[in-house]
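Two proteins follow. First one:
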Amino acid sequence: APAAPVIHPEKPPIPTRVEIPKEMTGDYRSCVNPVFSPDGASLAMFLSPSTQVDHQIMRKRLCVLEVPLVKVQGTPPVRKGTGFAEVRAKVRYFDPIPPKGHEDRKGWAKVRGPPVWSPDGSRIAYIRGTGPHDPKFSKLFLVDIPDISDISDIPRDASPASTSAGATSPLSWEKYPPVSWEYPGVSVTPKDYEGHVERIAFLKNDLILTQNAEGCDVKLRTVRLPPPGVPIKPSQSPGIPVVVQGVSGAPVQWHSISVSGSTGNPGNPGFSGTGSLCLLGSSPEHPLEVYAADIRESRGGPGLVMESICRITNSNPGLDAKPRPRQEVVRWKSRDGMEIEGVLMWPILTGASEKNRDSPLSSPSPSSSPSSASSLLTSSSSSPGTSGGKSTCHPVDTCHPLIVVVHGGPESHCRNEWLTTYSRPGVLAASTGYFVLYPNYRGSTGRGVSFSQADQARLAKEQFDDLLEGVRHLVSQGYVDPSRVGITGGSYGGYASAWGATAHSDFYQASVMCFGISDQVSKSMTTDIPTEIESVHWRKTIEEAYDDYVASSPLYYLKRARTPILISHGANDKRVPPSQSKILFNALKRKGDVPTRMVLYGKEGHGYKRYANRLDHSLRTMRWFNHYLRPDMSEKDRRALSPPRAEVDYGGTQRRRKSSRGLPKSRL
């Protein structure tokens, strides 16, 4: 807190518990993201009805409290048996909650915290979705915070009829019309903006710096506001782009911004046209690193200029001597004509293949005829970019296998940056001769709310066709061998991998499914986010759309399954329970003609945190693809090929093997 309580110097500080008036906030009692105002007199936070994950995601509302902790003489009274001092706060602002009879989902939306105070404490900015069906917090919202006052006189079920005409309380229905509880605050991001706001920072009371996802890139923009005291109105512009000067080489994608004014004080009360930024940045050349930059107002224009950009850290200097693959944004048309984009990582080429390193994907050289597997990826008349329905694969030295890496969510996206993690092979695959495609299929973020909602109520349909059309596009360019295509991903990407091994088994020759979904019916009843799934994915309950849930389950297409699949899951996953992997594994083992293996990681949840497990999964993933994506292998040979041995070689010494005793055991 910028201004902590002033305790008597001879007395140690006492932790203080702040009581939130229940009569004002109703059932909203769980607090997240608390932030003190610049003067330390108020506390902004988000409240939700409970600590349930569903409530924390979908039902947060902004609350501002006046906390009487500005000055305490001596030691504050301590409640007996607790060790805490206790104060009762006054509510300064609270997002209007639905009146009785209207407690439905209309006022729900995803909110990203923490709230951000303006330097003078008169405004709060935060990022919020546009409504209950917006799958991601996407717009910049602002709230003018009234002067400190107690509003406990307004009952929870306040309505225009029950509130006095002259009421001036911040929760008065005179200020907030009866429908305002659906969309509290003012959005200053246009509805049709084709991007998502990700981070925000106040530069001045009337100037905000935003970090926006736009396609596969990140843009910094500035948003001008009216002076304090003048009502905020919806904007028709997402903001003025910040001019970035002095960045050479691969593009840097920003992940976090921290601003300091000319006085160097956090919160920027001294920003007067010049200041400094601290940023986290990633590029195709390196993972996240710390950057510093100067920022100033543009000469002769309303925007800002970022210059003197300097990389501060080099966390892995060993990368500097390693070759990195060529990486670029690619675009293709899906079956219905929608444009899809993604990031393509080229194989690290050596020898005879090096001559094609700079060849554009749009300039193929026709060659051999397709095999039975490749014909499915090259003969579809509905796939734009193909060449007369025939494969245009280059000679062997330039025709490479492909791994499709599908991101989770689906409300997320891949940027043109460092994309290698334990569940995304990336450079590991490129260094052994693979193309790697990271598609931002429909339902992804970064292209506006409409695009992120394009998959809703139609899970696994057009969105997974987008993946196939991306593969067809690359095959048509002649650099990818259509008979050697693999797919992997985690969470929703694991769902896509399971789909690729069953419903789309004709198109993929190997699959690695990480904590993915195999049965939508049982998953909807066992996940920790059932409400969020119904609101932003299905738009219907399972009772209303049971047949759709079944038809969107990979398990439903078990008869089609022929693709060898490696399955991994965390034993403590609550988001996608491990039963999803066990169901598919047991079904395939009973089917008997599909090579499969499952690895269950103990003490892991939704995603793997332990480095030993990450290493194990990475090694198993590449070994699986190398095993089943060999050149000149027929489908019959592939299905007859037993999986690699269950044990993994971690580096050779007996001591290392003993240290890996806690690593998972593979189910055979």
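Second one, unrelated to the first:
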Amino acid sequence: RLATMRANRDRAFHGIHSDATVAGSDGAAPRRRDERELTELDVFGTLKEKHHKNTVKTMRAMYADVRERRRRAMEDLTPLQRRARASGGVNPFDWSDGHVGHFYEFMVAENAASERGAKSRAMVFERQDESGQNVVEELFDSFRADYADRWRAEVVCGIDASAGACERYRDAAAEACEALLGDDDAREMGACETYLHTYGIVHEHWHVEDYVQARNTLGYSKPKMEAPKRYPANLWGDSVLARSRNGECSACSTQVITLQGYVDVDVGTTYSLGAEREDKWVFDAERWAHDVPMTKFKIAKTCCTNAQFACFVETGGYADRSLWSHEGWRWVEKRRAAGELLAPLGWKVSPCVKFLSNGEEAPACESWRCAYFDEAPRALHPQHPVCHVSWYEAEAYCNWIGARLPTEAEWEAAARTTTSWSTDKQTTKRRTYPWGEESPSEDKANLGGHFGGTIDVSALGAGDSAHGCRQMLGNVWEWTASAFLPFPGFQMDYPYRENSCPWFGYRKVVKGGCWATSAPIARAAYRHSFWPHMHNTFSGFRAAIGGSQKRALCILPQKIQSGAKCGNVVTMERISSHLEKNHIMSITRSIFDLPQSKEDLANIIHAMNVDLIIVLHAFKCGAVIDTVQAYKDMLPPIILVLGGTDVNVDSRKSALAEEQFRRRVDVATKVVSFSLSMIEAAPKGALKFFESD
């Protein structure tokens, strides 16, 4: 069949799926292909799987919604701004308009119709090549036009693709698609017809988010994306009313510490990852459900915050090679060599005083400011999720706190599943959204740009998953540990075969959508992907911890150096070995690798989710003991291992030092010494002890 196609197959349909040649019929009304004709277009049979049907009225509302979102994202940009500059991988806005028009025309109209009147591209761009093909096909097909060529229309195809012309092409192509719907709003569309039109709309939703992201990258003003009174909330016909703003989302907390912590997730020995055949909308990368081995794990209830990530930056996270993968460290070195600031994209160093009025060190986030879009630098919102971080940065932070990124299956299990027990049998069910089946609304998810940016991680409790995880839809895309790979039995979809295949094996899976993602395309099952080095996207992360093993944070009073075998290191190795024998995982950190302010230290120890803290030296690691005393309700018990200088030097310096020693001993749940003489040298009455091996 491919051999008998009437036109060059790359032109007929960008590749190997079908011959979608459309006959011209000047002046004639367009003729829709029926369902039988549509299914025969796809030589791989994926269109036969489609089963959901929308009405014409619903589809028309979806076209109107994406058109309005596109208008809000671009209407205030001048032709010069739409031309943009090649920065951070952004596309020219005017080229994107033409590309969207090209998608509507080639992927939707020329498949949905067997006969059409004048083609949209010919109405706007008249020039053709020797074979009669309109030359804009070579410009607006993203898999045929090189990235640099998107700024060189006249070189590529000899036309002046102005911003106005590109916009007219987008509008004409979308109108041609809508014209194929007919005038009967009550008509139930065919399943294949519904799918083709919906795919065109989904594709433009992707670009609307790209427009917002590009405006931020280029330093343009933030678009006003307020929600209309009613708007489509999914791809199968439901709509929601815009809610009035509540103070929970508009107010930004100044609190540094994130209290939510972790939750245990146990869905049994396997999790079914991927789409079911009865699902209403499925991308090819989501096909089909298959069992993935699973064990019990913990996952953070909220995303990592600005305050938490600032601690990683301030304690030298970008300088600690041990925290980074090989590729991640190369990425850091490349940025350092280019003179880039080693921090999340958009952060700026703050010229503030780093101490509070009481003389204590200020939280790390006080040392940083941020600037997005064309805004002047402002203070970081400590409880907003950290945004604009690469996969490498997310991985390094998780390593620092002794955690890791969740796998795609773990993320989904935490976001989608509900579990119940009956007669000793566990039953796990999956939801469409973290909160259930009800469509996304503004009291559940920060989507569509309606809030104008990220919000506090504690907001929108109505959108919690059954496991208690918050904002798993919206706010920021969330990195997972998983590579973007096909599921077993993968088959690329018709008509957009390039949706997933080119990226398999190179990108990392991100989940959940962000504040600029359109609500209709946001689902817990949606698989998206970014290159691991990308940090211009609205992406963050949440940490995970494998298994149910208890964990202990072991703190040394000196820098940890490879191969060093001083007394403190040997002592901690003995302690770690003892912990391991008792099935307790040890996380060893230097006091210099941890934040210095009490708030930050409490915040990070809480983020580590440890059951026990062990410190060497009451004075050299005294900041940890003082923090446990100040935040005893949220931090685990602490064991103090005495050092020789504690009792022989530091506690004897003054009466104040002795008082400090006694207080820190009292805070400790247990005090350990490996020398009887050390205990005897301690201030009188400070210690009560018993001998043990």
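SUMMARY FIELD: Residues 191-218 form the longest helix (28 residues). Residues 1-18 have pLDDT under 50 and may be disordered.
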